[in-house]
Amino acid sequence: MKTSQKVAGAAANYVDERTGAAKWLKKNLTKVFPDHWSFMLGEICLYSFIILLLTGTFLTFWFDPSQREVVYHGSYLPLSGIHMSAAYDSTLHLSFDVRGGLLMRQIHHWAALIFMSAIVAHLFRVFFTGAYRKPREFNWLIGVGLLTFGIVEGFLGYSLPDDLLSGTGIRIAEAILQAIPVVGSYLAFFAFGGPFPGTAFIPRIFIVHVLLLPGLFLALITIHLMLVWYQKHTQYPGPGRTEKNVVGYPLMPVYMAKAGGFFFVVFGVTAFLGAVASINPIWLYGPYTPGQISAGSQPDWYMGWLDGLVRAAPPLETHAFGHTISWNILIPGLIIPGILFTGMALYPFIESWISGDKREHHLLDRPRNAPNRTALGVTAITFILISLLNGGNDIIATHFHLTINGIMWFTRIGLFTIPPIAFVITKRICLSLQRADRDLVLHGRETGRLVMMPNGEMLEVHEPISDAQKWTLTQHQTPGALPAPLPASATVGIKGKIRARLNRANAVQIPAPTLSDLKELGEAHH
Amino acid sequence: MSNQIERFQDPGLPEHVHRNADVDPRAAKRAEQQIAILFLLSAVGTILTIVSYIYIKSTTFFYLPVMGRTNLQQLLLGIGLTAATLFIGLGAIQWAKKLMPDEEVIAERHEFRSEEVDREELVETFKERAGASGIGRRSLIKRSLGLSLGLVGLSPLVLLRDTGPLPGKFLNTTNWAAGTRLLRDPDGQPILASDIEVGAVTQVLPELSAGMERTLENTGKDAVLLLRLRPEDFNLDPERLSWTHEGIIAFSKICTHMGCAVALYEQQTHHLLCPCHQSTFDVTRGAKVIFGPAARPLPQLAITVNADGYLIAKQPFTLPIGPSFWERNSSNG
Ligand code: HEM
Ligand code: FES
Predict the structure, then answer these.
(1) Does any domain span residue B177?
(2) pLDDT for position B3
(3) With 80 as the cut, is the pLDDT of residue A317 above it?
(4) What band does B287 get if pLDDT is binned at 50, 70 and 90?
(5) Is B263's C-beta closer than 6 angstroms to any atom of ligand 2?
(6) Residue A452 pairs with which residues in a beta bridge?
(7) Does the first or last residue of chain A, that is N or C, have fewer Cβ atoms within 10 Å of its Cβ?
(8) How far is the CA of A311 from the centre of ligand 2 (A)?
(9) Distance of alpha carbon A277 from alpha carbon A105, whole angstroms
């Protein structure tokens, strides 16, 4: 034995005698992970979170989370002699006088954008493939939590530097707090330690940004991954893949190398963005003061849809009995997001209530095979996209020579009309894709070659598809809602009627072709 | 035709196809070299990072197309870090793809549900253990424990009380009072009515009584915009008209929607625009909202001139300025 092997063996022995880890490791080194590009979205979330931890820790060494007033004397001359908070001053210091400081700030901000984008993309993957179904509902809930806290964390992050833009964002957050009926102004005074802006807010959100929420993320991500590990990954349908197995590559060495390598790729890409793409150049905005504002202020995209909803809200306030209620803030700022996020969290349970399906699912759905779910997802995305668009209405108006008034009315009407249209169109597309699948299985693939029949008719030659492809296209169960129909006892009362109605809607499917269909077709031809 | 519907059969995992490097030792050697080159490029990246950190002056800026004015050191540090990480990643992935076994393997899943006996035993054990605690029998303990557990959460809530003072009258009042002089922001000079030209807009703050400090909290509610129009442009009721002085009119600068500074003035249309959510206020009609989510006009500050000709406030704001809050009383407008 080589010395290195001896040392490794001795170390392993030392650890195992104290933990008994060998048995567990032996089993798990060959744990199987299915491979698909869409499974890497979750990995990107994890890796960009790690990048945020690393770069964020670097920033804390110089960032001074204080609203104490100082006079700037750093090397960025245009702001020389200006009064500002220590937070803004130290962010300028990081940007101009710490080697690599600007780079780390920019990597941190890009990583935050990638983190949020990856969470959303990962969520879409999970939703449209039905990966949240039993037994994975817990992970869906954790994911909704991570998305929510991610939005808050990102908002707090870009509020920290205390530039004119971020201060304006905080002012808006304060107005939302203040608008909460009965306790609003108390909440705002407690959160800000007195009147806005005060000197307490940035130190407080700093501790939330660098300690509380990252700690929470770490805990949630750990549970999330432990569940993935223990429940094993879902897989896409295909030859050899069943509800009872998982097909893929063993953890060691293939998955380790790919996943580990992918971490460095994500880091490299984020570092590249941080190196060449300027983001949040706070020195251009100046320090925050409540009497000033920069035109065209825009939040990061994951907040932009909220801003767009706020912009579209009609000017509704109730004034009665010496009290004021701002519906123009409460509805877009709290009520609609509350409904959206609650609905999202509850969706797996609603779906299984409708279908009565209590089985485990480890094979993913192809989105077209669950037309209602896919259509619902597209509906929600359409709603958010229209809001997001309105969040940039000033920019869109100037770029495309439209009036803000026009965009606002488009949004107000569009928010209620376009999503339902998107639902209908998506459902139709899903059904026609199902039909296309059926044709492909029964009639084969078009080859583009024409032949002349004895009677002079021209026909295109069709080539049968492979057995593997036939299986992939027909393995799903139709109708999607199973076990259908619901027992009669489950459909009484209003709730039962709604359930039965939705269940029937789920059952609208093009039946998956079977071997019998194919044979019948063959007989008809002869 | 038989009644039994025949479904398509799962053909099972496709046959494994060997890669070039699996069968051709020379291809494998080439792959190995490629991977090694990738790892070496990463090392070059790290060296670039270290060299730029030490040897490049942090004050060197230069102009790049698209990127604009760029700091050379930050750029090179970033490029170095990019290479250092990206190439490790590409190397590892290449290694996994080209040289590591690429045969898919199958693992069985287990059901999560525990065996029936285990579940039953759990219930039994739980009942037995709970019985041992006596919680079922001793209702006095159960209730009193329930009460104290319910209450214990109150202490952290109470302890948070001192995070801030109560709002008191702060949101209802500003530092404008009858006779307060209007000072130009930022130079702090009092303003003669004749200094203000038609079409001009000026940000002003109240002259504070001696010993009071100009804080951001004060600015956040005291900021006022002063505008001069031709008197015939106004479309105001007589009372509001009497709050103006020779075409000079003053409004709170704090948006009644969510408190941003209403900063954009369109001279032609006499519109004030808040850049946050585009609420638009018509100056000629007492800053009435003509567009956007704001529900109330900007409160108008009554102004006049004092004996020296300086602009002063006639009276405090008659309404709370800024965004709504629960205690805001709208009975006078
Ligand atoms: C999911 C996690 C996180 C997100 C989404 C996030 C997001 C952000 C954003 C958008 C900024 C503004 C950056 C700028 O443009 O200046 C920021 C600033 C900051 N973040 Fe984070 N962050 C995260 C985690 C962390 C962690 C874990 C730490 C520290 C341990 C940290 C420390 C900081 C500091 C000190 C600043 C202020 C310095 C500056 O703005 O230059 N962050 N964060
Ligand atoms: S804060 Fe002025 S429009 Fe919203």
Answers:
(1) yes
(2) 59
(3) yes
(4) very high
(5) no
(6) A458
(7) C
(8) 8
(9) 12
| pLDDT tens per residue across span A272-314 | 999 999 999 999 999 999 988 877 677 889 999 999 999 999 9
State whether B1 and A516 contact (CB < 8 Å): yes
Q: Check: CB of residue B317 under 8 Å from CB of residue B254.
A: no
Q: A336 — phi, psi (to 5°)?
A: -65, -50
Domain A29-302+310-326 is in which class? mainly alpha
Whether B67 maps to a domain, the answer reads yes
Is A249:A32 a contact under the CB 8 Å cutoff? yes
Is the link from the previous residue into A485 a cis peptide, with omega within 30 of 0?
yes
What pTM, to 2 d.p., does this model score? 0.94
Partner-chain residue, chosen from A239, A243, A329, that has the shortest CB–CB distance to B12:
A239
d(CA A114, CA A300): 11
Residue B24 confidence class, pLDDT cut points 50, 70, 90: very high
CB contact under 8 A, A316 and B295: yes
Q: Residues A283, B216: contact at Cβ < 8 Å?
A: no
Structure tokens at A54: 């690393």
Interface test mutation site (partner A, options B19, B62, B324, max chain A beta carbons within 10 A): B324
- Report the separation in Å between the CA atom of A416 and the middle of ligand 2, taken as the mean of its atom positions: 23
Per-domain residue ranges of chain A: 29-302+310-326, 366-526
8 Å CB contact between B207 and B231: no
If pLDDT is split at 50, 70 and 90, which confidence band does A525 have? Answer: low
Residue of A202, A276, A330 to mutate when probing chain B, most B C-beta within 10 A: A276
Nearest C-alpha neighbor of A214 from the set A361, A100, A108? A108
- A28/A39 Cα distance (integer angstroms): 19
The alpha-carbon gap from A128 to the nearest alpha carbon of chain B, in Å, equals 23
Query: Which chain A residues touch B114 with a CB distance below 8 Å?
Result: none
Is 80 exceeded by the pLDDT of residue A483? no
Residues in chain B: 333
pLDDT in tens, B51-64: 999 999 988 999 98
Considering only CB atoms, which chain B residues are within 8 Å of A107? Answer: 78
Checking if the pLDDT of B331 tops 50, the result is yes
Domain range for B289 is 172-313
Together in a domain, B61 and B184: no
* Residue that is written with structure tokens 């509704």 in the block: A316
CA distance B80 to B51: 9
Structural tokens at position B76 = 């090179």
A154 lines ligand 1 (CB under 6 A): yes
Q: Would you say A270 and A48 are in contact if contact means Cβ atoms under 8 Å apart?
A: yes
- Give the gyration radius of chain A's Cα atoms: 28
Residue A48, pLDDT > 70, answer: yes
Average per-residue pLDDT for chain B? 92
- CB-CB under 8 Å, A468 with B107: no
| The pair of three-digit structure tokens given for residue A440, joined into one six-digit string | 């492909």
Number of domains composing chain B: 2
Cα A218 to Cα A212, A227, A295, B308: the distances in Å are: 10, 14, 37, 66
Q: Assess contact for A478 and B16: CB atoms under 8 A.
A: no
B138 near B145, Cβ under 8 Å? no
Nearest to B6 among A192, A239, A514 (CB): A514
Task: Supply the CATH number for residue B234's domain.
Answer: 2.102.10.10
